[in-house]
Amino acid sequence: MPEHFSIRGAKGRTLSGKIAVCGAKNAALKGVAASILFRTPLTLTNVPEIEDVSRMLEILRTMGAQITFGEHQATIDARGLSETTLTPDIAKRLRASIVLTGPILARHGFVRFPHPGGCVIGERPIDLFIEGYKKMGAQVKQSGKFYDIRAQRGGLRGAELFFRLQSVTGTETFMMAAVLAKGRTVIKNAAMEPEIKWLADLLNASGAHISGAGTPTITIEGGDPLDAQGKSFRVIPDRIEAGSFLILGALAAKRLLIDEMVPEHIESLIEILSATGVKIVRGERSLSVSAPKRWQTLRSVSVRTHEYPGLATDLQAPLTVFMTQALGESLVFETIFEGRLSYIESLNRMGANIAMMDPHRVLVKGPTPLSGKQLESPDLRAGLAFVIAAVTAEGTSVIHNIYNIDRGYERIEERLRAIGVDIVRAN
Ligand code: EPZ
Predict the structure, then answer these.
(1) From 94, 123, 167, 404, mutation site for ligand 1 pocket: most ligand atoms within 8 A of C-beta
(2) Is 199 in the pocket of ligand 1 (CB under 6 A)?
(3) Burial classification of residue 365, based on how many CB atoms lie within 10 Å of its CB (0-12 exposed, 13-18 middle, 19 or more buried)
(4) Which residue minimizes the CA distance to atom 35 of ligand 1?
(5) From ligand 1's centre to the CA of 265, what distance in Å?
(6) Distance between CA atoms of 158 and 161, rounded to whole angstroms?
């Protein structure tokens, strides 16, 4: 029988204590993919022990890499990785597996992969990837369900790439491919997420020549396979987890300390919450937050998701839950993905007053008390938003499909219980 979470509402400002943030899923997954560029084993520490990371490691293992993983440390020896096909099974298991195409193509001169299947958060096309590979001199053939990408003799060539849209995995994939390409690659309108900068630092410390990561223009001078030189690399803290805990604390904590995180990675969320009246105290590697004594004192603000350093789309669902408890109207505009608002219906069943304006925008009217309900987690971020809604609600909520939550958050119920959330995992 699949597991579910049963959560009893917190009845006001009852949470307290300290919660440490785990390593970032979306950095760890790319670090694992980067191992393909190495002629030595690569060791990552502070790796979150979550389903998506296990799946990514499993994919590399089935493709021929040797892997050890435990106690938040992963060592990946990809020297024996010889497989150049990502099967539909692999692509379906993990959308992020698209980032493997860059390092595989750069190293082997060939990669075959299926069009990644539809996803609950929208279309997620791959046109930027196909166009980029062509610009690097590769031939692209579509045969049946698969794309066959073949570099020209001598390997990928450096190129000038301008991304029409800032794509996170696109930037990471081409940054990695360019490390082993011949000559210089320039990525313009590159994504600037902290995970990209972290990945570039890891590659540079191992012999790559990347400049500008964290800005819209990244330049990569191609070279030889990388050497970790016996070093290990610590995965940066998960800013989405940190931001979600901050929202939880702003709704239900007497005082919550969110620790082992980087406040400037969620600056835009801090600004938004502060504008609603939430009191946040910044430490160097922590934030402390309290819910107001009376929720009615929170003021709504309108928000739109944006590429980093703007408001992360991955924080959109938790922030919408927050807005249900703030006074006034908040327009929430999801600019990155269509289809990432499907959870709204469930919040309305809980008592929220949210009107769908179009596939990208909702209008939240608050404050509205929420009441416990049966919920299905549609994706991992909305899943955690439901956990926050359930804590805010009166009565008990049951959240199903929690595999989706386990994909991105490590031992979430244990960690939330430690700060006072009444949550149990059950069959
Ligand atoms: C990454 O997805 C993250 N995933 C997502 O996190 C995150 O929501 C997203 O970036 C935005 O921050 C990983 O890092 C594994 P994009 P990604 O390419 O890279 C369009 C989570 O829950 N686009 O930056 O797939 C695309 O449709 C996940 O952890 C094209 O049109 O997102 C979107 O509108 C969910 N063509 C926009 O670009 C392309 O070829 C930005 O998407 C590629 C993307």
Answers:
(1) 167
(2) no
(3) middle
(4) 314
(5) 18
(6) 9
149 labeled part of a ligand binding site: no
- Dist. CA 142–CA 112, nearest whole Å: 9
Ligand 1 centroid to 266 CA: how many Å?
Answer: 18
Average pLDDT over residues 335-347: 95
Helices and strands per DSSP (H, E), number in the chain: 14, 23
Ligand 1 atom nearest to CA at 338:
34
C-alpha dist (Å) from residue 77 to 70, 99, 120, 206, 312: 15, 18, 33, 15, 33
What is the CATH superfamily name and number for domain 4-22+237-426? Answer: Enolpyruvate transferase domain (3.65.10.10)
Distance CA 403, CA 324 (A): 26
- Consult the annotation and say whether 50 binds a ligand: no
Strands of the sheet containing 303-304, edge to edge, are 303-304, 328-333, 361-366, 353-358
When pLDDT is cut at 50, 70 and 90, the band that residue 119 belongs to is: very low
Residue 117, Cβ neighbours under 10 Å: how many? 10
- Whole-number Å distance, alpha carbon 240 to ligand 1 midpoint, is 14
DSSP 218: E
Give the span between the Cα atoms of 397 and 387, in whole angstroms: 9
Find tokens 């993905």 and name the residue.
337
Give, rounded to a whole angstrom, the gap between the first and last alpha carbons of the chain. 6
**Residue 126 labelled as part of a binding site:** yes
- The total number of residues shown for the chain amounts to 427
pLDDT of 323 over the 90 cut: yes
Same fold for the pair 4-22+237-426 and 25-223: yes
Residue with tokens 């410390």, as numbered in its chain: 205
Dump pLDDT digits (tens) for 390-422.
999 999 999 999 999 999 999 999 999 999 999
| pLDDT tens digits along 85-106 | 998 888 887 888 999 999 999 9
Q: Using alpha carbons, select from 139, 161, 136, 135 the residue that is nearest to residue 148.
A: 139
Residue-wise DSSP of 359-399:
TTEEEEEE----B--EEE--SHHHHHHHHHHHHHSBSEEEE
Cα 11 to Cα 188: distance, rounded to the nearest angstrom: 49
Is 95 annotated in a binding site? The answer is yes
* Residues recognised as catalytic: 119
Determine whether domain 25-223 maps to CATH 3.30.70.270.
no
The finding on whether 101 has its CB within 6 A of some atom of ligand 1 is: no
Domain boundaries, the chain: 4-22+237-426, 25-223
